[in-house]
């Protein structure tokens, strides 16, 4: 029998893997809704501009990097500055460890063949993605609430930027 929550009367506690899967699913749902509502900003530079102008409407900051990006000193400096700004302005932050899956969710192409990339645009900068609150109404979104609770719980455990691995589909 699965262990129960406090007082042994609550719902069964989820394993860490199950909990992370639920958070990954919630993130997918939030991104899907934000994309349809056009409340997403993609790119480190674009994110910095928005954070400078309108930080109060940013509800979530995603920092995406793979193993190769971890060796990019300039990118890590950008991440540090963005994280500090988000912490100071009470913006929830998540780190996404698989930018390719994030690109799929945002309907962006990441795998252009070398032959077709000549003269083509640069691939989008997915290292920072901001989700903003729509101005028309306050979000009462259970998936967003789940992400915010996860971020808050992580901060209580001194994990200021929790890492999420988006599930492959």
From TrEMBL:
Keyword Membrane: no
InterPro entries: GADD45 (IPR024824), Ribosomal_eL30-like_sf (IPR029064), Ribosomal_eL8/eL30/eS12/Gad45 (IPR004038)
Ribosomal protein eL8/eL30/eS12/Gadd45 domain residues: 25-118
Database matches in PANTHER family: GROWTH ARREST AND DNA DAMAGE-INDUCIBLE PROTEIN GADD45, GROWTH ARREST AND DNA DAMAGE-INDUCIBLE PROTEIN GADD45 ALPHA
Gene3D superfamilies, alphabetized: 3.30.1330.30
Keyword DNA damage: yes
Protein family according to the UniProt entry: Belongs to the GADD45 family.
GO process terms (BP): DNA damage response; regulation of cell cycle
Subcellular location: Nucleus
Organism superkingdom: Eukaryota
Keywords assigned: Cell cycle, DNA damage, Growth arrest, Nucleus, Phosphoprotein
Pfam families: Ribosomal_L7Ae
Example of a GO cellular component annotation carried by this entry: nucleus
Protein name: Growth arrest and DNA damage-inducible protein GADD45 alpha
